Amino acid sequence: MARRAPSATRTRRGSAPAVRAAWSATYERQHYANLPWFDPDPSSQVRDSVANGFWPPGSPLLDIGCGAGSNVLFLARAGFAAHGIDLSPGAVRAARERAAASHLSIDVREGDALALPFPARRFAGATDNGCFHTIPFGRRNDYAREVHRVVRPGGGFVLAWAAREYTGERGPPHRPSLDEVARALESRFQFVRTVFRPSSEAGGLAAYIAWMIRRDRPQPPRR
Q1: Nearest CA-CA partner of 24 in 92, 82, 118, 70
Q2: CA 20 to 30 Å from 18, out of 24, 28, 87, 96?
Q3: How far is CA 53 from CA 84, 128, 156, in A?
Q4: Beta-sheet strand order (sheet of 207-214)
Q5: Rounded Cα distance, 74 and 57, in Å
């Protein structure tokens, strides 16, 4: 989850070319297993969400910024229709190779969180383990709009990001506060649970995790 994204100028649609090139180069320079954010196991919040029935069994789910596919593979093993997107062709290739080696059927494709290559309401739920906190400030509304578009009303969205409380060098330059995340997403998703995971439980990287439900009607106005 400890991703560091390069800065880039805003584009009208999708991520800037420099961002795409940087992520592509990251996976070309070294094997995915040597990248600091790679974990061969699924994220704890994804395991918990499956165990607690947060997503309907067997439903189509999307992992945004899936990397080498550990969460996607876990979801496929658990019986879900598992999908993933990542900006890096190398990440997509790694996820597909791992799935083939495990004889798992998945749909992982090169894609952009700011312009998701899927039709509206395609998924019963989604997860993001470290993509959101790399999104430039000015594009967070675009991110929220895209996730809202592809998730069905009532669908569950699980988001994990590097906590502001983490002050180490590893991880993204900006670690969003709870307030920043709420401002970006709360108009489209209802927060149902939020937890803080300290560094001791996150491999040295403190994080927040939020479980949300995609709204099927506008957020109530301020009173």
Answers
A1: 92
A2: 96
A3: 20, 18, 10
A4: 107-110, 81-86, 60-64, 123-129, 151-162, 207-214, 189-197
A5: 13
**From 51-60, 110-119, 202-211, the region with the lowest mean pLDDT:** 202-211
Whether 87 is covered by a domain: the verdict is yes
> CA–CA distance from 210 to each of 18, 70, 73 (Å)?
30, 20, 22
State how many domains the chain has: 1
Whole-structure pTM value: 0.87
Q: List, in sequence order, every residue forming a beta bridge with 193; answer none if it has no partner.
A: 211
* Spatial separation of the C-alpha atoms in residues 213 and 157, rounded to whole Å: 6
With contact defined as beta carbons under 8 Å apart, do 187 and 209 qualify?
A: no
The two tokens of residue 26 are: 């990251």
- Tell whether the model's pLDDT for residue 8 goes beyond 70: no
Residue 34 lies in a domain: yes
Is a pLDDT exceeding 60 seen at residue 217?
yes
Instruction: Kindly state whether residue 159 falls inside one of the protein's structural domains.
Output: yes
Tracing tokens 């993509």 back to the chain, one arrives at: 131
Q: Which domain holds residue 209?
A: 17-214
Distance CA 206, CA 185 (A): 21
CATH number at residue 107: 3.40.50.150
